[in-house]
């Protein structure tokens, strides 16, 4: 999940039930005991592939997904816009290929894990007696990628639903966790994507700790900002003005004050996390290295710090740009800065959900490209140092089935 979305509404269980009533698709069969549950087993297999950055293995999980897709009669196609970074497209052809298609997206990669901080190894896919499944990527977002396939499997094998009206595509893309530039961005810009004639996209969302499925229609823009101070080096025994460290420390103090002002809005209940500008330091780099640490009697001539900043769509980016230029890294204090805007957000339709890749898809600017959201997984624990899901997968599976049927059944273009 590149970023969590800023505005949300809830689809409650009652809404979910209404969906089921409106589209009275059959109840799912009782799942077998957990020990023998092939759905869970397949999910665990997917979790065991080491797809974490900085060296995600894409080859083996893509082969696994292809085999799963083919086992339920779906077509597969692998695109490789950047060597070693495949985009897998799984297709369920519809009876009306002239209609815009439906695309369900998920990403193959995961954020890094620190194995010594986990109760269970992050790529073991361990399921505990109380039904928890541990794994890096369990929430974000291998559960989604697998549920797409399991939902279609159920539609075809349990419900006898052989052919949708609209063609359905599943996309499994690489590199989402590092911005998607070599994954979704290239995919969306390709003629292959154009040929899919996508009219509706569903992407990952935010994990939910209860039975609410939240639909997001806006996203925050992530900025990666590095500020750098330079100054006259000097001996550690003497105080003087305009050292690099002093300049950087002044900036850090100002940035901390700004961060507090934003965070306090959240702490006082005046704003949600997604509605404020979040500023988090991610590195400090300074000091003169020696063979056994740092020179403790030298003031260095350079010092820098990095920040992960997230802007809600309601904030004018120029404001933060000016703040950086004039307050956090002003030339008057011998400072420079650089930033990387990972994804620019464009809101074009009424009901949109965006995470990183949804934003990329939005940039495509197609009128019919409507992004909606499913939550990561029901009954999840929000990400801490570990990542896990519980076995309440059936609920989300039902949700997905009902929601997908809603669009599969319609013969006119979605009007979200
Ligand atoms: Zn994700």
TrEMBL record:
Q: Which GO terms describe its cellular component?
A: cytoplasm
Q: Does the keyword Magnesium apply?
A: no
Q: What region holds the Peptidase M20 dimerisation domain?
A: 223-326
Signal peptide coordinates = 1-27
Residues the entry annotates as binding Zn(2+) 2: 140, 177
Residues holding Zn(2+) 1: 107, 140, 204
Which residues of this protein are catalytic? 109, 176 (proton acceptor)
Q: What does the entry give for GO biological process?
A: amino acid metabolic process
Cofactor remark from the record: Binds 2 Zn(2+) ions per subunit.
Q: Keywords in UniProt for this one?
A: Metal-binding, Signal, Zinc
Give one GO molecular function term. Answer: aminoacylase activity
Q: Which cofactor does it need?
A: Zn(2+)
Task: Please give the PANTHER family that the UniProt record associates with this protein.
Answer: AMINOACYLASE-1, PUTATIVE-RELATED
Q: What protein is this chain from? A: Peptidase M20 dimerisation domain-containing protein
For this protein's source organism, the top of the classification is:
Eukaryota, Viridiplantae, Streptophyta, Embryophyta, Tracheophyta
């Amino acid at each position: 999940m590149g970023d969590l979305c800023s505005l949300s509404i809830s689809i409650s269980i009652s809404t979910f039930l209404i969906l089921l009533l409106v589209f009275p698709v059959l109840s799912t069969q009782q799942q077998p005991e957990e020990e023998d549950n092939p759905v869970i087993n397949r999910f665990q297999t997917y979790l065991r592939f080491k797809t974490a950055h900085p060296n995600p293995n894409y080859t083996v999980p893509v082969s696994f997904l292809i085999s799963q897709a083919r086992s339920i009669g779906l077509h597969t196609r692998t695109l490789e816009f950047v060597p070693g970074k495949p985009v897998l497209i799984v297709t369920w052809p519809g009876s009306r290929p002239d209609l815009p298609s439906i695309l369900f997206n998920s990403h193959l990669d995961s954020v890094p894990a620190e194995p010594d901080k986990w109760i269970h190894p992050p790529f073991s896919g361990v399921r505990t007696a109380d039904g928890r499944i541990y794994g890096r990527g369990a929430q974000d977002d291998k559960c989604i990628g697998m549920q797409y396939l399991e939902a279609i499997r159920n539609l075809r094998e349990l419900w006898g639903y052989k052919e949708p009206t609209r063609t359905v595509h599943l996309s499994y893309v690489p590199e989402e966790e590092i911005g998607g530039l070599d994954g979704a961005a290239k995919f969306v810009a390709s003629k292959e994507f154009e040929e899919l004639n996508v009219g509706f996209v569903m992407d990952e969302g935010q994990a939910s700790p209860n039975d609410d499925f939240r639909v997001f229609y806006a996203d925050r823009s992530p900025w990666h900002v590095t500020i750098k101070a330079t100054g006259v080096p000097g001996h550690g025994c003497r105080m003087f003005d305009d050292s690099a460290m002093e300049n950087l420390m002044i900036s850090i103090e100002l940035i901390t004050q700004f961060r507090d002002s934003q965070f306090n809005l959240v702490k006082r209940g005046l704003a949600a996390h997604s509605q404020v500008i979040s500023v988090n330091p991610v590195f400090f780099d300074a000091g003169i290295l020696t063979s056994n640490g740092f020179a403790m009697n030298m003031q260095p001539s350079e010092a820098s710090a990095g920040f992960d900043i997230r802007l809600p769509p309601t904030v004018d980016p120029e404001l933060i740009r000016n703040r950086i230029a004039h307050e956090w890294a002003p030339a008057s204090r011998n400072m420079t800065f650089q930033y990387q805007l990972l994804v620019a957000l464009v809101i074009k339709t009424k009901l949109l959900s965006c995470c990183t890749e949804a934003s990329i898809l939005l940039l495509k600017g197609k009128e019919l490209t409507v992004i909606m959201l499913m939550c990561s997984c029901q009954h999840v624990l929000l990400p801490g140092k570990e990542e896990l899901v519980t076995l309440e997968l059936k609920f989300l599976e039902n949700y997905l089935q009902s929601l997908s049927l809603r669009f599969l059944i319609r013969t006119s273009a979605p009007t979200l």
